[in-house]
Design goal:
Number of strands: 11
Helix content: under 10%
Largest sheet: 7 strands, mixed
Radius of gyration: 13 Å
Distance between the termini: 40 Å
Number of helices: 0
């Protein structure tokens, strides 16, 4: 069983930055691919970013491309999502997810999920 714990959320003004972390326990993160999703109030959860096991494969949602950066440090069993140039529409609960390779990167079929961390961007 894998446990994922997100941290780093908070409140920030538009144009600001945050760095989200996703700490994994129970299994080596290097055996898993990772994704980040978000859910805004009243909306469905949506894909944000994906990173392969060793970081050589990365995908972003069009809405965050060029502003967000996904990364991972397998030695620390931790994944990251750097949020730059934040906009009010980025306000959401952000979730990290992990799964064995083969999962559809943008789907919600990941096996393991964190509890989420809130990001609030004010204008």
């Amino acid at each position: 069983q894998v446990q994922l714990v997100e941290s780093g959320g908070g409140s920030v003004q538009a144009g600001g930055s945050l760095r989200l972390s996703c700490a994994a326990s129970g299994r080596s993160l290097s055996s898993l691919v990772m994704g980040w999703f978000r859910q805004a109030p009243g909306k469905e959860r949506e894909f944000v970013a994906y990173i392969s096991r060793f970081g050589n494969g990365i995908l972003y949602a069009d809405s965050v491309k060029g502003r967000f950066i996904i990364s991972r440090d397998n030695a620390k069993n931790t994944g990251y999502l750097q949020l730059n140039s934040l906009k009010p529409e980025d306000t959401a609960v952000y979730y990290c997810a992990a799964s064995a390779p083969g999962v559809s990167a943008t789907s919600e079929n990941y096996l393991y999920w964190g509890q989420g961390t809130q990001v609030i961007v004010s204008s």
